[in-house]
Amino acid sequence: MLAEERERGTPEHFADLRRSVGERTWSAEFQGVPASPEGNVIRREWLDRWRLPAMPTAPLRTVVGVDPSDSGHGDACGLVAASLTREGVVVVHRDISEPMTPERWARAAVELAQDLGASEIAVEAFTAREGYLSVVNNTLRRHRLTHPIRVTSWPPKGDTTGRGRGDALVRSTKLVAGLENGTVRIAGSLSTLEEQAVRWQGTQHQPDCIAALTVAHDVLVHSIGHMHIVSMADIERRAREGRRPPPPEWMRRRIGGLGR
């Protein structure tokens, strides 16, 4: 019997498994209890335990997640930015959720992505998929961008892996586990998002900011293992052809003082 097989079934093995999947999944899948014994879905002590003093430098990827609203009266739009670090941690660092019309949240999403260097705006689109994508893409075309930004729907169209299935609680399972075990962390303080997060119970409507964060988190974790290196020569060629903005000055510098 291999050492790994011998370790399975030991108290230490189950303790590690419980930490990795989080209390809610542990209760539902291994204890037969669908709700966490604490009641609320997300606990404040998790957010404080893993909190970062500031956003880490040079993240691998940044995504703006959107839970869209259809009016600016009472119907809040969830609008959150999160980034993936080199250590595989998803860091939540911006939340500008509030009631907004589609035109307003589309503009806010584009401006936020531009400001943060985000490569993607992912919009939750269980309904009105084409309409939501159209309003964001039209807004994107009216802006002078300093870097490419793609607009996608979530769950991805044609996905067969089950992303986005189930109710809000099920869709948030991996996000909640990440907040508990430290693979998802908040940079600084996001008071409104945090307050809504810790008040949320599974029987209630999911806060719009948490719905948006669920989207951004899912997109980031599914990008792990699918990243590729972009050729600097290819970037410059596309800029000359007018297919993208020229790279910033720091990307055009040469090592060893050889000039540009």
How would the blueprint of this fold be written?
Layout: H1 3-7, H2 11-21, H3 23-30, H4 44-49, E1 61-67, E2 76-84, E3 90-95, E4 98-99, H5 102-116, E5 120-124, H6 129-141, E6 150-154, H7 168-171, H8 173-181, E7 184-186, H9 191-199, H10 208-223, H11 232-240, H12 249-252
Parallel strand pairs: 1-5, 3-7, 5-6
Antiparallel strand pairs: 1-2, 2-3, 2-4
Domain Terminase large subunit gp17-like C-terminal: 64-189
Biased composition (Basic and acidic residues): 239-252
Pfam family, one: Terminase_6C
A few lines on this structure:
This protein has about 260 residues and is of the alpha/beta class.
Characterization of the model:
- Residues 64-189 form the Terminase large subunit gp17-like C-terminal domain.
- This is Terminase large subunit gp17-like C-terminal domain-containing protein.
- Keywords: Viral release from host cell.
- Residues 239-260 are annotated as: Disordered.
- The chain has 260 residues and is α/β, with parallel strands linked by helices.
- The protein has a single domain, classed as Nucleotidyltransferase, domain 5 (2-Layer Sandwich).
- Helix content is 42%, strand content 14%.
- The protein has helices spanning 3-7, 11-21, 23-30, 44-49, 102-116, 129-141, 168-171, 173-181, 191-199, 208-223, 232-240, 249-252, and strands at residues 61-67, 76-84, 90-95, 98-99, 120-124, 150-154, 184-186.
- Strands 1, 2, 3, 4, 5, 6 and 7 form a seven-stranded mixed beta sheet that branches.
- The protein is globular, with a radius of gyration of 20 Å.
- Mean pLDDT is 83; it is low at 1-6, 227-232 and 253-260.
